[in-house]
Design a protein that fits this description.
Number of domains: 2
CATH superfamily of the largest domain: Metal-dependent hydrolases
Oligomer: single chain
CATH class of the largest domain: Alpha Beta
């Protein structure tokens, strides 16, 4: 049996229904960008060989993490404006900073920085929404990270779209340029929010997404102020408002969903819409705590997101898992509120489902794309390793030693192979000189 890559002697966490338990000492064969076989070392055929063999003794192989929401270019604004409410943060700091700095060079290099940070922390797939998204797609392609890239739509002059009347048309052209171009990029549309996009814009954007067989992402019910504003303008709540416009369906990803009542949760569930929850960003901006336990209980597909560096301030999905699990235990005064297993699924197969990619990624099984990360378990904070729950409560991004995406090694022994990280950091530091 000939393979492109053969991983041997690894503890394996498949996270698949067929193999839900740990394989204590196993192998993974990778051919043509996909997993061709995996199992105990005893089942590895003697004829197996590969140009690249990784002896992963002392390591855990698991699916790469899926970050269902970020704004990669905003890594330039990390730490620029902290400890502020959302509207003050946006209107008085972030929007002016974007007006001053956002161009194609900024978007490209800051997206490369974000990609490096995510790869170093074990993220192999990311959903991004911003402006000049072609440059994000270029950066992610160059870095070898899988992504759903969504062109931003907003009813104000925006980078690359100075005339708001052209916002949906620009998004349509973006999808046409990238759809089917390569198997790492999935184009989509990102409507900023119900309060920055008119009813007509929202309906045109969704209709375009449907015509293009693409997803629509939107910030929704993030703050109490947003709820009050939509109530004042449209005499309803954000979820009911989008539902009345026909925006919600299985290809709509609603980001944040902090301020929901039980009927709204039912509306989301019936529509088939997905949810991306970003607990650290919601905490830092004082937005609130999403009713995540109820959302999951309703059968809604939920993925975990970091949001952008400007409101988190990291892209480490391991730390996001830890905080998410503990936050909801505190909210409900219940240590069983959201088990680690549920959180781990949100960061892997749940995120893949939310992005419409569950047929390709999210767990380790033959036929799935080879998006695999290796964690070094031989560290004090990961010993003894009784159970995968430890990944949620003790692991961090720095534990990731090797990252494989689409069957290609993009990081080995903590060394990124797809870019010169020192060059990227220097470029971003120079871009930051304007502040």
């Amino acid at each position: 049996m000939s393979n492109d890559i053969l991983i041997i002697n690894s503890t394996i966490l498949p996270l698949s229904h067929k193999e839900a338990k740990l394989i204590e000492k196993g192998f993974i064969s990778i051919s043509d960008g996909a997993i061709s076989a995996l199992g105990p070392m005893a089942d590895l055929p003697d004829s197996s060989k590969a140009p690249k063999t990784i002896n992963a003794s002392g390591h855990l192989a698991m699916p790469g993490l899926v970050n269902t929401h970020t704004h990669a270019p905003m890594s330039l604004f990390r730490g620029l404006a902290d400890d502020l409410p959302l509207m003050t943060w946006l209107n008085e700091h972030i929007f002016p900073a974007e007006a001053k700095s956002v161009n194609r060079e900024m978007v490209y290099w800051c997206s490369k920085l974000a990609a490096a940070e995510m790869i170093l922390a074990g993220t192999t797939t990311v959903a991004d929404g911003y402006f000049l998204e072609d440059s994000v797609a270029d950066a992610f392609t160059d870095c070898g990270i899988r992504s759903v890239v969504a062109q931003g739509v907003i009813d104000f002059p925006a980078p690359g779209v100075p005339d708001p009347a052209q916002n949906v048309e620009a998004a349509a052209h973006f999808i046409d340029r990238w759809q089917g171009k390569n198997n790492l990029i999935t184009p989509a549309i990102f409507c900023h929010s119900p309060y920055t996009c008119s009813p007509d814009t929202l309906k045109r954007a969704k209709e375009t997404a449907r015509q293009k067989n693409a997803s629509l992402f939107i910030h929704l019910a993030e703050t109490k102020t947003e709820v009050e504003q939509i109530q004042e303008q449209h005499n309803t709540t954000p979820v009911r408002y989008l539902n009345s416009l026909g925006i919600l369906d299985k290809d709509t990803v609603c980001i944040h969903c902090v301020w929901l009542d039980e009927e709204e949760i039912e509306i989301l569930a019936k529509s088939g819409a997905k949810v991306s929850t970003c607990p650290q960003s919601n905490m830092k901006l004082g937005s609130g705590i999403a009713p995540l336990k109820k959302i999951l209980a309703a059968g809604i597909s939920v993925g975990l997101g970091t949001d952008g560096c400007a409101s988190n301030n990291t892209l480490d999905l391991f730390s996001e898992m830890d905080l998410c699990a503990k936050l909801h235990k505190v909210r409900d005064l219940d240590p069983t509120a959201l088990p680690a297993k549920t959180i781990l699924e949100m960061a892997t197969i749940g995120g893949a489902s939310a992005l419409g990619l569950a047929n390709d990624i999210g767990n380790l099984s033959p036929g799935k794309k080879a998006d695999i990360i290796l964690l070094n378990l031989m560290q004090p904070h990961l010993q003894p390793f009784y159970h995968p729950d430890l990944l949620v409560y003790a692991a961090n991004g720095a534990d990731v030693s090797t990252v494989i995406i689409n069957g290609k090694i993009v990081m080995q022994d903590r060394h990124i192979l797809t870019q010169d990280i020192n060059e990227t950091m220097e470029k971003v530091r120079k871009l930051a000189d304007c502040f």
